Amino acid sequence: MTDGTHRRAPILDGRLSAAMALAEGTRVFADIGADHGRLSAVLLLRGARRALVADVSAAALEKARGRLCALGLDSRVTLAVADGLAALDAFDQVPDTVFVLGMGGETIRGILQRGYARLRGAALILGAQTDLPMVRRTVCEVGYRIRREVIGSAGGRDYVLMRCTPALAGEGFYTERECVLGPGLMRESAPEWRRVLERRERLLEQEIAAMERAGLEKDKARLAMNRRELGYVTGQLRLMRRPGAEGGDAP
Q1: Does 96 share its domain with 209?
Q2: Cβ count within 10 A of residue 165
Q3: What pLDDT does 4 receive?
Q4: Residues 109, 215 within the same domain
């Protein structure tokens, strides 16, 4: 991509910078849930040819429209107020990359389940704020697999970003442990991974303790899942803390 800094490119935080790095070489893309439009603007300024910029909120999309028009990029953009991947129906091109960022895991799961048939082989760049195991399972269910996972930091928080492409013939579903830890991070751990796991360990311990105190019947299935997830996280951290360990896969 060519350098677009002379066109007053917006500054991306660590989370969006990580998402953009996963999409190197993108030429035609869709930014679903674009909100402020910063990522779309930078991608276009750095060499992407066309973009679909979409949000379920018309007011949010106006912020993106204003930014893109101010940068002289509006002629290369299709804007759509739409729910999730239904926005792709408004685009006259097949994107090579589709971004779905900055939403909860439940929301991203719904977007993928309802709209995966519209992807037509596009790479997915996903950034869920919550429920990463759920998102990883859903990626498998809609016929994709995770090729790479990276961690971007912004506002004092760490975010896991995933690049996913269609499954190859014979690729199996992820195990529960892979969904919890992340197959991409297990293959190629990021320096921040230990910090992410330690935070998740603390949150799981707190949630488990609260559910055990409450003793509610409706929490039993969730409590069992949390205990299993804690076991995977604790086991991986134990391995990473061994002398000379570099975050490799646990037995």
Answers
A1: no
A2: 15
A3: 42
A4: no
User: Token pair of 31, please?
Assistant: 């930014």
The sheet with strand 28-32 has its strands ordered as: 77-81, 50-55, 28-32, 97-103, 123-128, 157-166, 144-154
Average pLDDT of the residues of the chain: 93
Q: What is the pLDDT of residues 24-35, one digit of tens each?
A: 999 999 999 998
Task: Pull the structure tokens for residue 91.
Answer: 């685009």
- Quick one: 160 and 233 in the same domain? no
Which single residue is written with the structure tokens 């134990």? 238
151 contact partners, CB below 8 Å, separation of at least 6: 18, 158, 159, 160, 161, 185, 190, 192, 193, 196
Secondary structure (H, E, C), 182-212: CHHHHHCCCCCHHHHHHHHHHHHHHHHHHHH
Q: Is residue 105 part of a domain?
A: yes
